[in-house]
Write a structure and sequence with these properties.
Blueprint: H1 2-28, H2 30-50, E1 59-65, H3 70-81, E2 85-90, H4 94-102, E3 108-112, H5 116-121, E4 129-132, H6 137-165, H7 170-177, H8 194-225, H9 228-231, H10 242-270, H11 279-299, H12 307-314, H13 318-324, H14 336-342, H15 346-358, H16 368-397
Parallel strand pairs: 1-2, 1-3
Antiparallel strand pairs: 3-4
Helix pairs in contact: 1-2, 1-10, 2-8, 2-10, 6-7, 8-10, 8-11, 8-12, 8-15, 10-11, 10-16, 11-15, 11-16, 15-16
């Protein structure tokens, strides 16, 4: 019985020592303090601010009316009447409009072709050319949406006039042109804002990126300077590493929960990003995600032998992780092998649950499958992290 008590006391002592030691290292290491805590706090605010406008309106667009008829002018007026763009300047030739575009005087170019009016009257389909910069998704989306709306409405108007010309009343012509009327209702993003769509996902990815960098920097320092035995001299067997790993995770968990509350309680409401679910349920759901991320970072120390290694590797993973999450890239076009890889990334389940709670108002009972899968992923990486630390410890003994 005394051996069991001594083992519990030793493990509790190692747990507390690992937790407090990790906290001191986070605070005292400028690189870790900046890359984990300061970046999480500042970047979440700045990123939300950049997309706080949600949608862009009255983007200046140049146009080249090569037809110069009543129909072409009507089309330009219809585009100008949308909230997305403002038909700012007319050019006689496309090269002139391109120069204005390259100088960023306009954000897009619309070219109405010759015979636009003639083709419409002959029931042909004229092609309106729209040029915009695909590197700026917000600009691209707004200019293209304005053109699509205008083309659709003008096409419907032309069809209605043709039906009226056959002697039908305007109401009958309208019903004949559109026998079924549809109405689109955006349940969780009524403004179709880019910020509401993307910011909650990015906040979760910020957690993973900053934590992995911090863990990699501190772990790389331990490996580089061979500090494992010095920091944790009283370790026996693989299970002896378990309280060390869990103590480190507890430190990151407590700090991350504070940052999460700051994001949900201040940043998101401040920029009018909805938080429809209960904050407590979101925090509870994110606990296994945060722990899984910490254990993943400790496992990755197998590959980080210097503190700089983590910075170089982790910094370039945020965009691929965002794409693999399925929120900015359609899941049905992701190859099966990438789908298999993304199931091992904590943000895949983390973003799904976080979005469900904060944006859709779900509770944990609704997403309990995600919650249980996250705990499974957490245990999986806990085992790998423990084995990793044991391996590093044995290397230093040689």
């Amino acid at each position: 019985m005394s051996k069991i008590v001594k083992r519990i006391q030793r493990d509790a002592r190692n747990f507390y020592h690992a937790m407090t030691s990790e906290f001191r290292h986070i605070i005292s290491d400028v690189a870790v303090l900046f890359s984990f805590i300061i970046v999480s706090v500042v970047v979440s605010y700045v990123y939300s601010y950049l997309y706080s406008q949600e949608i862009l309106t009255d983007l200046p667009v140049a146009y080249v009316d090569m037809d110069n008829t009543a129909y072409s002018r009507q089309f330009i007026r219809m585009m100008d009447g949308t909230e997305q763009v403002k038909m700012a300047e007319k050019f006689s030739q496309l090269p002139e409009a391109i120069k204005a575009f390259e100088k960023e005087e306009v954000r897009g170019i619309v070219v109405v072709p010759r015979n636009f009016s003639h083709d419409l009257q002959k029931s042909l389909v004229p092609t309106v050319s729209v040029y915009t910069d695909g590197a700026f998704m917000l600009y691209y989306k707004q200019v293209l949406s304005a053109a699509n709306y205008s083309v659709a409405y003008m096409g419907a108007g032309v069809e209605i006039k043709k039906i009226q010309a056959k002697g039908n009343l305007p109401s009958i012509a309208k019903n004949e042109q559109s026998p079924i009327m549809g109405e689109s209702v955006n349940l969780y993003n009524p403004n179709v804002g880019y910020g509401t769509f993307l910011v909650p996902v990015v906040l979760v990815i910020i957690f993973q990126t900053t934590m992995l960098q911090a863990i990699g920097i501190l772990g790389g320092t331990i490996r580089e300077k061979h500090l494992m035995k010095k920091l944790y001299p009283d370790i026996k067997g693989v299970l002896g590493m378990l309280p060390i790993v869990m103590g480190k995770a507890a430190t990151y968990l407590m700090i991350s929960i504070v940052i999460l509350i700051y994001m949900m309680g201040f940043v998101m409401p401040h920029f009018n990003i909805p938080v429809r679910g209960e904050m407590l349920e979101a925090v509870i759901y994110m606990i296994p995600f945060l722990l899984a991320t910490v254990y993943l970072g400790l496992f990755l120390l197998n590959f980080f032998k210097k503190r700089e290694d983590a910075i170089l590797v982790i910094a370039f993973t945020s965009i691929p992780v965002l794409l693999l999450s399925g929120f900015s890239w359609p899941e049905n076009v992701i190859p099966w092998y990438f789908k298999a890889i993304r199931e091992l990334i904590p943000t895949t389940l983390g973003t799904k649950g976080f979005i469900a709670i904060t944006q859709m108002g779900a509770d944990i009972n609704v997403i309990k499958d995600y919650f249980l899968e996250l705990w499974g992923l957490c245990l999986f990486y806990l085992v790998l992290a423990t084995l990793t630390y044991r391996r590093i410890y044995l290397i230093e003994e040689e």
